[in-house]
Records
---
Amino acid sequence: MARANALYYATHDPFGDFTTAPEISQAFGEVLGAWAAVVWQGMGAPERVTLAELGPGRGTLMADALRAIAAALPGFRAALSVHLVETSPGLRAVQRERVPDATWHDSAATLPDGPLIVLANEFLDALPIRQFVRRGAGWTERFVAGDRFVEHPADPPERDAEDGAVVEVNEAALALVTALARRRQVAALFIDYGPAESAPGDSLQAIRGGTPADPLAEPGSADLTAHVDFAALAGAARRAGAAVYGPTPQGPFLARVGLHARVGRLSRAAPPETARRLLQGLHRLTDPHAMGRLFKALSVCDPELPPPPGFDDA
Ligand code: SAH
């Protein structure tokens, strides 16, 4: 999955195959910029802060966030330096057009020390999973052999499941969240799709040309994703000493951070066709039958910091 996705993102414009929240509405990145601004103030408004994004795609979210930050809180704009974690050379070039003054990284491990605010939308779902299958009293792990899956005996994963059920483990996501959770002066916001509680099941999915495809056909030609196991990530972050907020569904999260107010203001000032598009985008991002419920927000913070905006368990 790691190799297929690395090839896919290096050779495709993924946005021909799927769309994401920042591409649906400029207000998404703007309110996340406001989220970061409130977090920065909660840190005591440090003079230097890293604003990082993981897997920034076309750079749209960061460009929208920076524009909102510059307008609302110029002191934060002056204090922050932008760091983007991106492995695809093609997408880095697109991001450079939108966010010229950024520093790029291959992984979050090289982000600077000191106060750190992290945004990540639809990043964790692209990281490689392992799949374990309960077979009677034992377990197997699924591997790819050519164009099919094979199973080999394996040690049991941490979670149990019924005979025949698949348990997915995203080691890269767990390691990333654990490393962030160990830092001080950190606040990270992950938005992705997956259930609120860990649930067994095969969630590996391939999208090619906008439609579901066989994940094993033509490796590198389709976007591979899996549901994010928020409960597992929250547990790992807590064990590493962080405060965890969420997962909370995207719809209520975006409402609490002011998406409706922002879209209202934009659409009142816009021509009718633009206003219609803005309201359509708002609906798509927040409606429970669209992205409002399946997508969730999870925040991992230094427990010394005040709770971030947007979470009812804060
Ligand atoms: N956040 C963007 C893009 C989501 S697509 C949006 O919401 O529109 C996933 C992004 O993560 C792409 O930019 C892809 O190139 C990047 N990516 C995927 N796997 C990665 C990895 N292992 N390390 C760094 N970036 C990765």
Note: Residues 26-42 form the longest helix (17 residues).
---
Amino acid sequence: MIKNKKTGQIIVISAPSGAGKGTIIKHLLENNKKSLWLSVSATSRAPREGEQEGINYCYLTKEEFEKRIKENYFLEYTKYADNYYGTPKKYIKEKINQGIDVILEIEIEGAMNIKKLIPEALFIFIMPPSMKELIKRLKMRGTEDNEKIMKRFHEAYKEINEVTKYNYVVVNDEIDNAVNKIEAIIKAEKCRVDRIEEVYLDTKEEEIHELIMNGNFDNRGIGEKME
Ligand code: 5GP
């Protein structure tokens, strides 16, 4: 009766650092291996302990990053906490055409640039349960000194005030709960009427007439005549 768009969609996920976005996305990818793909960004910041090239980020020097900006390599890029971050254009279109949803895990300025370029993308903001909890998570992560944490906290504070620019907000009070909510949002988005390409009648007029006049129905299925 309806033919839906088969293409994947762009899902932009933003959150202040320390809100638990990384863990949520990890779970989302594990649960939806075939239908979700995470775009790996490039950055000029140094890798944190445990981070891997090509998995967490593609790590570039500031000069390399600036060269790629000039080469029009990025769909969007920004400077955040003194470092460059950017989404490579490569692969995104390919994944979308294969029907795979693409997650862009980016900060708000980048998200708003994507909104201008691709207004139909889905924008989800992950909110920490409280500011105290956010500071606790940043401190416990132990990857930044106090000065850097302060900088990130101020960025986080600014970002939280921009939440209404997104389509959905999910509070990360408990990981499984937050993951379930995001999966539900993605499912619901697939049912939006603007994804319909065609509405058609799947049964011929004569058949409809015959079914109405002479069809006997039981719970074995539509159109089966009872013996
Ligand atoms: P982190 O240094 O904690 O990994 O990332 C800092 C911020 O940069 C996070 O909010 C993260 O989502 C954002 N970010 C990561 N990659 C990109 C990107 O490609 N573009 C933009 N605009 N932001 C990004």
Note: The radius of gyration is 23 Å.
